[in-house]
């Protein structure tokens, strides 16, 4: 049983994230989308809300689970008996940070492996931050996020404005 952890903020989950999950399921028997509790300070959605949006997005995928974690990723990976961490690589701009994280995690645990997956080209420009910005400015985010994420964004931004 080969397990991969896909960690991130997922504030909110996008079609780019979904694309990475789908690719990871072809390489691993089990994929856990792990929402980090530590990055929640400036988040639009709470960890529980983000987890709910991830769960709804992966409902039809039998080998994919969603979970929240806090503390060191290397420890979470061990607790889940996972073989690798999956991260998405969109462009050169992602590379430096990801390279540093991957090597630092390996310093903390020498068995730690990070697998990078490139999304479908149409998602290479997509980020949760950009989706939130477009939604805030009244743009159509339907090509970028699952429908329930679109509704959640509309509802949250409506209460923000009120
Ligand atoms: P973080 O806040 O840790 O960067 P995100 O939730 O934004 O996490 O993303 C989690 C992971 O998914 C990161 O590895 C990020 O590079 C990747 N990712 C985000 N958006 C995309 C996308 N459109 N295509 C491919 N990978 C992506």
List the helices and strands and how they pair.
Elements: E1 3-8, H1 15-25, E2 30-36, H2 47-57, E3 64-69, H3 73-79, E4 84-88, H4 92-108, E5 114-117, H5 128-136, H6 147-161
Parallel strand pairs: 1-2, 1-4, 2-3, 4-5
The structure holds adenosine-5'-diphosphate.
Polypeptide structure, described:
The chain is α/β, with parallel strands linked by helices and 162 residues long. It has a single domain, classed as HUPs (Rossmann fold), CATH 3.40.50. The protein has 6 helices and 5 strands, in the order βαβαβαβαβαα. It has helices at residues 15-25, 47-57, 73-79, 92-108, 128-136, 147-161; strands spanning 3-8, 30-36, 64-69, 84-88, 114-117. A 5-stranded parallel β-sheet has the order 3-2-1-4-5. Helix 1 (15-25) links the parallel strand 1 and strand 2 (30-36). Adenosine-5'-diphosphate binds at residues 8-10, 14, 16-17, 20, 39, 87-88, 90, 94, 119, 123, 126-128.
Short description:
This protein is an alpha/beta fold and 162 residues long.
The CATH topology corresponds to Rossmann fold
What portion of residues belong to β-strands? 15-25%
The value of Rg in angstroms is 16 Å
As laid out across the biggest beta sheet, the strand order is 3-2-1-4-5
Helix content: 40-55%
Looking at the overall shape, the CATH architecture is: 3-Layer(aba) Sandwich
CATH H level: which superfamily? HUPs
Q: Which small molecules are bound?
A: adenosine-5'-diphosphate
Structural class by SSE content: alpha/beta
Terminus-to-terminus distance: 49 Å
Write down how many β-strands occur, each being a DSSP E stretch of 2 or more residues: 5
Largest sheet: 5 strands, parallel
Question: What's the helix count?
Answer: 6
In the predicted model, the low-confidence regions spanning at least 5 consecutive residues are: none
- The shape, in one word, is globular
Structural domain tally: 1
Order of helices and strands: EHEHEHEHEHH
Instruction: Please give the CATH class.
Output: Alpha Beta
Mean of residue pLDDT?
94
């Amino acid at each position: 049983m080969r397990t991969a952890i896909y960690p991130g903020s997922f504030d909110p989950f996008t079609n780019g994230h979904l694309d990475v999950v789908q690719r990871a399921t072809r390489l691993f028997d089990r994929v856990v989308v792990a929402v980090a509790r530590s990055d929640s300070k400036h988040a639009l959605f709470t960890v529980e809300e983000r987890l709910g949006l991830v769960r709804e997005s992966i409902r039809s995928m039998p080998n994919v689970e969603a979970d929240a974690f806090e503390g060191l990723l290397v420890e979470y990976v061990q607790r889940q008996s996972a073989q690798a961490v999956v991260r998405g690589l969109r462009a050169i701009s992602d590379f430096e940070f990801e390279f540093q994280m991957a090597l630092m995690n390996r310093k903390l645990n020498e068995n730690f492996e990070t697998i990078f997956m490139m999304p479908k080209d149409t998602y290479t420009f997509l980020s949760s931050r950009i989706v939130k910005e477009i939604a805030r400015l009244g743009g159509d985010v339907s090509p970028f996020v699952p429908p329930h994420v679109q509704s959640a964004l509309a509802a949250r931004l409506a209460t923000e404005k009120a």
